Amino acid sequence: MSTLKALALGSYSEVKYHPFAGVDREIEQILANDLQVFSSEDYGLLNKEALSDYKLVISYTEFSDDKIPVEQSSALLSYVAGGGGLLLVHNGISLQRNQELGVMLGAHFTHHPEYTSLQMSIPAREHPIMQGIEEFVIEDEPYYFEMHPYFETTVLAEYPHEGAMHQAAWCHEFGLGRVVYLMPGHHLASFSVKPFREMIRRGGLWAAGLL
């Protein structure tokens, strides 16, 4: 087992849409050969001292109207800007409820139409995260985003829906650190789709500076 560690944050107790139970084990398993993943719902771990132990933070955090305390959001911002990795999966983009974290994510979730079959295409085949990953189909929620203007990010995957192409994954550097967002992951079945599993693995390693 590798001694390099990752922290995965999700919701076990107060769950509206996306329970972390089960998903946590999948993420731990996907990254097991490279990173030891510790799963928790304790946002209190977002402090400088605790974060210094981790190469990567993974967000599968539940959508909520309540911002996380500014001490925690500031610690996460500093962690990434100082060289840490951040991987956000599906609802993990809910960190946008803190405006300062939303800026770091590169886009803003607006809404999603009904769950459906999505055809993923790969516009960034040469990027290290996507090498060897072919187009694939996944049953999931089609999240819609507004990409931040004047913010450079690399779209890794996209899908056609209702007559337009929509972003499904992207990545960028933020200060000395790296941020990766992957849209699929609404329920446990998504994590058995091999190309998506590989995107989680390679996305996490790239964000952590290990790829």
Total E-strand runs: 11
Strand order of the largest sheet: 2-1-3-4-11-10-9
Mean pLDDT: 96
Strand content: 25-35%
How do the helices and strands follow one another from N- to C-terminus?
EHEHEHEHEEEEEEEH
State the end-to-end CA separation: 18 Å
Rounded to an integer in angstroms, the radius of gyration calculated over CA atoms is 16 Å
InterPro entries: Class_I_gatase-like, ThuA-like
Protein name: ThuA-like domain-containing protein
Domain ThuA-like: 28-207
Pfam families: ThuA (PF06283)
Describe this structure in words.
The chain is α/β, with parallel strands linked by helices and about 210 residues long. It is built from five helices and eleven strands; from the N terminus they run βαβαβαβαβββββββα. The chain has helices spanning about 25-30, 50, 70-80, 100-105, 195-205; strands at about 5-10, 35-40, 55-60, 85-90, 105-110, 115-120, 135-140, 145, 155-160, 165-175, 175-180. The strands form three sheets. Strands 2-1-3-4-11-10-9 form a seven-stranded mixed sheet. Strands 5-8 form a two-stranded antiparallel sheet. Strands 6-7 form a two-stranded antiparallel ribbon. The radius of gyration is 16 Å and the shape is globular. The mean pLDDT is about 95. InterPro entries: Class_I_gatase-like (IPR029062), ThuA-like (IPR029010).
